[in-house]
């Protein structure tokens, strides 16, 4: 019906725009590419009496990681072709979880404006006539989601959508106060404090497909509460129920309390275990990282290091939130179980001198002496086959 309506103006010689989104998947990381990605699908072809052909392609998604650069592809065709380009307006907005729109970029002829946190990071690709694509540099976690491309000339306009996906890892989180203590806004803040954002349903579902199994419900970015079960059991929603992502639906954001599922991506820096001759308490741990030119690592940073650096260390260490954890890529005896993951020992008394510390140093910071940077295990023995991206299957594992 939409295209029949568009056919009318074309027949009368009016200017008509159809925006079409290129579905080729762009990636700045050397990660496995799904076989479905990169396929272009023609949805409709319209032809009027003058022989003008308008093609709209199916929307797709583009994939990058935090800190990368990515093109959001969008092209348009207009009739007649001699339309003044200075009267063409290109507008990009981001669709938020509340179905509201956040301005990103607008251009009218040679005039351009970039909004908010996108200033200095977004510009037109300008790959030729009919190109409305934009490039986003230094991609952030908050850039994840759906973008709308709108092209307008006088009274005629059309829109298309692009989904920006990020490679990363989902992890469950609860604070020192215990489980089921966070309303939605507190869960959102808790993820941000751990260098992450609330995960989306699609991100949690992907993590479940990779083996995530967690028996506590948590907030997602859309306000729903869900949890992933790979191994059904009576203690976790009955053994006879099938495996999957269990969904409590949308809950009251102020009154109800759960845990949170957070999402993080590649680090602009590295996490390492600070080697010391003796164990330290929490205060001593944070001071030791500071003396080494770093800071105590956040939970999200440790998960990102486990995922992308393949950080593997069978020694428990303090993190910035007061929890004690350690990352395992290659499971072995006396190292917390048979599955890869980030082991969690809870929130011990901060006065205990029983652990080491994991530190984080940003790429712009100069390394200091006196530390042993335990990087990811880079030899081929520690890497998974290309089919699973070199990433351990289970995104978290408790002892």
State the secondary-structure class: mainly beta
In angstroms, what is the radius of gyration?
24 Å
E-strand count? 25
Q: How many H/I helical runs?
A: 5
**Separation, N- and C-terminal Cα atoms:** 57 Å
Biggest sheet strand line-up: 4-13-12-7-8-9
- Provide the low-confidence segments as ranges: 1-20, 23-58, 366-399
Proportion of residues in helical segments: 10-25%
Principal-axes geometry comes out as globular
Main pleated sheet: 6 strands, mixed
Overall mean pLDDT:
80
The helix/strand series, from N terminus to C terminus, equals HEEEEEEEEEEEEEEHEHEEEEEHEHEEEE
Our estimate of the beta-strand percent is 25-35%
What is the topology?
Blueprint: H1 2-11, E1 16-20, E2 42-47, E3 53-57, E4 61-64, E5 70-72, E6 75-79, E7 88-95, E8 101-108, E9 111-114, E10 122-124, E11 134-136, E12 145-153, E13 156-166, E14 168-173, H2 184-193, E15 197-198, H3 201-209, E16 218-219, E17 224-229, E18 244-250, E19 259-265, E20 269-273, H4 282-291, E21 295-296, H5 299-309, E22 317-318, E23 324-328, E24 341-344, E25 356-362
Parallel strand pairs: 4-13, 16-19, 22-25
Antiparallel strand pairs: 1-6, 2-3, 5-11, 7-8, 7-12, 8-9, 10-11, 12-13, 14-19, 15-19, 16-17, 17-18, 20-25, 21-25, 22-23, 23-24
Summarize the structure in words.
With 399 residues, the protein is mainly beta. It has helices at 2-11, 184-193, 201-209, 282-291, 299-309, and strands spanning 16-20, 42-47, 53-57, 61-64, 70-72, 75-79, 88-95, 101-108, 111-114, 122-124, 134-136, 145-153, 156-166, 168-173, 197-198, 218-219, 224-229, 244-250, 259-265, 269-273, 295-296, 317-318, 324-328, 341-344, 356-362. The longest helix is centred in the last third of the chain and has 11 residues, at 299-309. Mean pLDDT is 80; it is low at 1-20, 23-58 and 366-399. It is globular, with a radius of gyration of 24 Å.
